[in-house]
Amino acid sequence: RENMHEKIDYVFKVVVIGDSAVGKSQMLSRFAKNEFCFDSKSTIGVEFQTRTVTINDKVIKAQIWDTAGQERYRAVTSAYYRGALGAMVVYDITKRQSFDHVARWVDELRAQADSSVVIMLIGNKGDLVEQRVVHAEDAVEFAEDQGLFFSETSALSGENVETAFFKLLEQIHRVVS
Ligand code: GDP
Ligand code: MG
After folding, report:
1. For residue 26, which ligand has an atom nearest its CA?
2. Residues 11-32, buried b or exposed e (16+ Cβ, 10 A)?
3. pLDDT exceeds 90 at position 93
4. Does the CB atom of residue 22 touch ligand 1 within 6 A?
5. Is 132 exposed, middle or buried (0-12, 13-18, 19+ CB in 10 A)?
6. What is the ipTM metric for this complex?
């Protein structure tokens, strides 16, 4: 593993939220293991995954939490949010409803997490261009309005996943340092 022998300067807890089936678990597995798992049931039950990265000469251990299916019943517990310094709020660019629900997820996050939590809005499944129903401009507008960072990603191809996580971790580092 990268940085195995280096000392860790920071541990950042990041939570991934959003409607069921938008690709949260796959985003996480893409970032933590550079894998896309076609049988996504295998990720159920995993609480969090970690990846250690270097940003601005600091060794940062990102501890990224997965809802593991709780979101299906809107039963994400307060323990899940506790201590989170960053969050990815994910929707599926091919599912309008998943975008319509983003505001609710952001509200819940703001109510439960630290007030300085850094939030990144993610439009996932960017590879499914023909099925797109959520326009990037609408997401940009929402993100600007709410003070969120925004990116479209594909956990399947890997496009922008790494960049989005690095951006989030970099912003958290700015906040804490
Ligand atoms: P979660 O419920 O939000 O954790 O969603 P999953 O990560 O389990 O993914 C739900 C479904 O969407 C699975 O069938 C994945 O294979 C698929 N999926 C996830 N990310 C992508 C993506 O970027 N592109 C495409 N085409 N499918 C994806
Ligand atoms: Mg999942």
Report:
1. 1
2. ebbbbbbbbeebbbbbbbbbbb
3. yes
4. yes
5. middle
6. 0.99
